[in-house]
Design goal:
By secondary structure, the protein is α/β, with parallel strands linked by helices. The longest helix is centred in the first third of the chain and has 17 residues. The strands form two sheets. Strands 1, 2, 6, 7, 8, 9, 10 and 11 form an eight-stranded mixed β-sheet that branches. Strands 4-3-5 form a three-stranded mixed β-sheet, with no helix packed on it. Helix content is 26%, strand content 31%.
Length: 208
C-alpha cells in the first residue's frame, strides 16, 4: 500500500491520468494499491449521472468524468482522497455496495474524531450533518469507479473550502439541502492533522 500526500494544488486532468495509469498497473500486478490525498484548484466535475440543468453557472472549469454520481465541486480547503484498491485482495467476496459503505464509514469515523456527527441518508449519496434548525447539509461527497475490481476516484471532505463556490451547481443533484464544512461547524483541523486521522481511520475500516 502506498499512501501519498500531494504538496501543492493538483491539476485535475493530471490526476485523472495518474489514476488511470495506476489502476492499470494494479490490475497488471506491477504496482501496489494507492491512497492519494490531494487538493485541486477550483473546478466542477460531472459524473455519469449528471444533468445539464444542474450546472447553474460554469464559473470554474467543468470536467466530464467516468465516476458515478452527478455534479460536484473540488477546490482549495477540500481534502480529496483518491482510493485505488484491489477489492479481490481486500474482500473475501468483492462487493461494491459494501465498499461504498466502508468509504462512508471511513468518513464518519474521521469526522467523529473532531466531534462531528456525520450520517448516511437513504437515497442520498454522501455524508450529512443535521443543523440546529433540523435542516441537513452535506459535508462529504463520494464517487467511485471500479475496473476489474480495482477502484478509483474516491471521497472529498469539506475542511475549509469557499462554500460559495458550490453555488454554481446543484451538488449531486440535491436541491433541498445545503453544504457545510468542518470550519463552518467550528472545527478547524489543518490538513496535516486531518490526513493523520484519515490514515488512522482507514486502517480501522479497511485493515492494514
Amino acid at each position: 500500500m502506498e499512501w501519498t500526500i500531494a504538496p501543492n494544488l493538483t491539476d485535475y486532468q493530471a490526476a485523472l491520468t495518474e489514476m488511470e495509469s495506476r489502476v492499470a498497473a494494479i490490475i497488471a500486478g506491477s504496482a501496489p494499491e494507492k491512497i492519494w490525498l490531494v487538493e485541486h484548484p477550483p473546478l466542477y466535475t460531472a459524473g455519469t449521472s449528471a444533468q445539464p440543468s444542474d450546472l447553474l453557472e460554469a464559473r470554474f472549469p467543468v470536467h466530464q468524468v467516468g465516476r458515478g454520481g452527478q455534479y460536484t465541486y473540488h477546490g482549495p480547503g477540500q481534502r480529496v482522497v483518491y482510493v485505488m484498491l484491489d477489492l479481490k485482495t481486500r474482500m473475501n467476496s468483492p462487493d461494491i455496495r459494501k465498499f461504498v459503505w466502508m468509504l462512508e464509514e471511513w468518513i464518519i469515523r474521521t469526522l467523529a474524531a473532531y466531534g462531528v456527527d456525520g450520517q448516511r441518508r437513504e437515497g442520498r449519496v454522501g455524508i450529512w450533518v443535521v443543523r440546529p434548525d433540523g435542516g441537513e447539509d452535506k459535508i462529504a461527497a463520494l464517487g467511485i469507479r471500479v475496473r476489474k475490481w480495482v477502484t478509483f476516484h474516491g471521497i472529498a471532505i469539506n475542511v475549509n473550502p469557499d462554500l460559495s463556490h458550490f453555488l454554481g451547481i446543484v451538488p449531486c443533484g440535491i436541491r433541498e439541502h445545503g453544504v457545510t464544512s468542518l470550519a463552518k461547524l467550528g472545527k478547524n483541523p489543518d490538513m496535516t492533522a486531518l490526513d493523520a486521522t484519515l490514515k488512522e481511520k482507514f486502517t480501522e475500516v479497511f485493515g492494514a
